[in-house]
């Protein structure tokens, strides 16, 4: 891999995607060419900016990235392996209230030939002590959803760049606070959206930005994944926290996997933006029926009342009039699907199963073979054809690319505005369903900067 630092950052996302794919050229997902400048004037949407935009702000270059892992369950433990697999990365600190999990992760670090990491295991808030260390460049947060906001906030206040597993936060005011803190502290706060690095997603991204689909009109994404057995299995999650969100919110609890890739195809926050969302939800029956069939009487889950819609369907509209359909269903039996669809004036791609129809290449209403478009693979997948890790390798791609941006001093592929936008359907879909499908306005977290791309 060519680790030469690029000489210029002032290139557009579209021009980057037309390059042959040198490592320093950029992934083509992030915002480029925006100098950090304060905007003190009143804005149309949201609170007054307290700092300067984080659009286009590069990381400080460093030879080694010092990483802290906060949350070492299934996700955090697996991601620790991937940080250890990337050159130029040292895992210096670990945090989890379950001591055994932290000890297992620490053993991985030393087995990889790195110094023994500091371990923080004294309760749910020991991450606060970890983040005060002063020797951490990046914190990876893989805890229960209700702690994401507080941990990300603490990281920013301690001068640490932070990446958070989905979703970033659960309330709009929390999303705004993280936007403000990122701008004030000059530290990046990112959604660790692995699906944006999938092979199909990156191939479609490059094709879309090269105009293969014509003018983009619509897209779709989802998290349709039968999680019933996992949500009732005490060994799958540390406590019932994920299941309990189905007793609190009616809407789309996990929009990021579907929303993030389509937002990238359409350059949301970079020339277009999401402006409103309308959501509807089915009755909530799946979890209660699964409990009746599988859980013994007296199990604590029998005290729970589920209100979360088994299937939510949302329509997001953009400033350019495009439409994005989002779905969420983890409570009924069905094969896994993120839908991952994109359509324009010259053709259409649909995933699960993957298929394509381009006016220039296909006839007679017959789907084409997407594997024949491998020439459009992103350079990440050309240089890392068999990446380690789960989810088909996209977890590794996320870690590798993020660490590369930090080592080379590049602009990250995603920023806090993307994180807030992709997470905003969590509270807004809940409100729309409660109000019988009334549209909800999606804040302009960029405060107008999206127009300058």
Keywords for this entry:
single chain; 453 residues; alpha/beta; six-stranded parallel β-sheet; 15 helices; disordered N terminus
Q: Main sheet, how many strands, which sense, barrel?
A: 8 strands, mixed
Q: Distance N terminus to C terminus? A: 29 Å
Shape: globular
Whole-number mean pLDDT: 91
Strand order, sheet with most strands: 13-12-11-7-10-9-8-14
Class computed from helices, strands and strand pairing: alpha/beta
Outline of the structure:
By secondary structure, the chain is an alpha/beta fold. The protein is built from 15 helices and 14 strands.
How would you portray this structure in words?
The protein is α/β, with parallel strands linked by helices and 453 residues long. The protein contains 15 helices and 14 strands. The strands form two sheets. An eight-stranded mixed β-sheet has the order 13-12-11-7-10-9-8-14. A hairpin with a 4-residue loop joins strand 9 and strand 10 (323-329). Helix 2 packs parallel to helix 3, helix 5 runs parallel beside helix 6 (172-185) and helix 6 (172-185) packs antiparallel against helix 14. The two termini are 29 Å apart. 48% of the residues are buried.
